[in-house]
Known about the structure:
The protein is mainly alpha-helical and 249 residues long.
Amino acid sequence: MIVLWIIFALFFVSYAIGFPALWLMLTAWSVGLSVYLLIKSNLPSPAYILISIAFAIIVALSYLGYALKFYMQIPISGISCFLSSLAVFSVMEKCGGYVLVKTDRKASVFVSVLLGVVTGAILGLINLLLSKSSMNVDFAVTFPRILLSLNPGIYEEIASRAIFMAFCTYRFAMQDKSPSRFQKFTMLFMMTVPHCLAHGFPLVGSLVLLVLFGFPFAFLQRKRDILSAIIAHTIVDLIRFVVFGLPVQ
Length: 249
């Protein structure tokens, strides 16, 4: 856990001085944790390897039709998403503590989807209200906008959030006692704060992002399942892209 805080300290200093490659730093951090967990816990079952491949392909292809200068992100995001997915699912199968999709009851999958849709719609509308004064309306429902919304929904929830949950879960499982309050706080902190800071907003904006979006998505992952968080996050970005268009290219 201490290692996480040391790395975060370096990450925060980079944020404070306006370092322009925070996403790249977070990606490297995520890949490092993924490799560590895969060395320790090995690969997940074949089914989850296939899901990891599917996630990586979707994330990589989401940049197609967006902007040529972002095409370099295709291998970076694809590989990091693949490694993170493998690590997250490997720890999930061996240590428990969270699930990709809740299946304990007949309607569990439906509830997860519904929860993700409702949460995403509410947060998406809040995001519109916060953005309307600074962005021009460019309403259109197009395939590139729909496709690109899958990128943050899958990539950020897996490689920027769930990987920290997996790392902490693995460390909890390796000790003989229940996790302390500090350890639980560390998990929640790492699942939310680095991802919010990586957007590069001023501190107040990052805090707003943390409270309105970071905590709800992390709560869904911890208390429900990863699928509900992916759906909610995807819908938030889909609403923004449909109303305001794709990010500036």
